[in-house]
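RECORD TYPE: protein structure
NAME: Enolase-phosphatase E1
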Amino acid sequence: MGFMERPDYQALLLDIEGTVTSISFVKDVLFPYAYENTEQYLQSNIKSDKLKPTIEALVDLSNQEATRDGIKKVESLEDWETLASNVKVWIQNDRKLKPLKDLQGFMWEDAYLNGKVLGHVYPEVKYILNDFKHIEIPVFIYSSGSVHAQKLLFSHSVDGDLTPFISGYFDTSVGPKTDASSYKNIANQLNLPPKDILFLTDVGKEAIAASDAEMRVHLVVREGNAPLCNDIMERFKTINCLEALVCHE
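PREDICTED:
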């Protein structure tokens, strides 16, 4: 397996969920782990210096959203019980909140380091990442999960430590994944024209946003991914696995 010739783009940008790892791993392993361990983790770590900025941000967010969707006002930075209740509401509602993602990342760190969880990646991912490293096309990750959580998944994957194959990571610090400006920000940080970056995702709105930013886009269609409407399928090239990137068409 390998490229017969170098592709005409300069960087590969990968979504995680539904692209390199299964949606079921995120939905059925990572999210439930965070949900089920929220109280215990916050009770044990509420005074941790490492978590302090995240706790402060979660408290501020709680008080901004108090009375919305069952969110309660948090009276102090040590009120872990109320904070845990709010965190579980946000997890249930799949809110894309940076401090929530940061907290989940810390919880998943414990799970990875203690061997309770291994990061799922599809069987071909390791080999494709190696191919891209061999031809010196850098690979980057863009996910709504925190950079910290991304690194944990790839460093503790079922195929070992994959971080040597990855040149950088982006999360929603650059902007939401459905905003074209986020992809322009990534291109600026990579010092590349957007047209020289290929983005892979399983989400139609993300594909449109990246395309609006003038990135190249392939949609990844895998078993278990959410269905895509015909208009989106016709607008973008679709692939069923990353091996399609190294095959001539």
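COMMENT: The chain has two domains: 11-21+119-246, 27-113.
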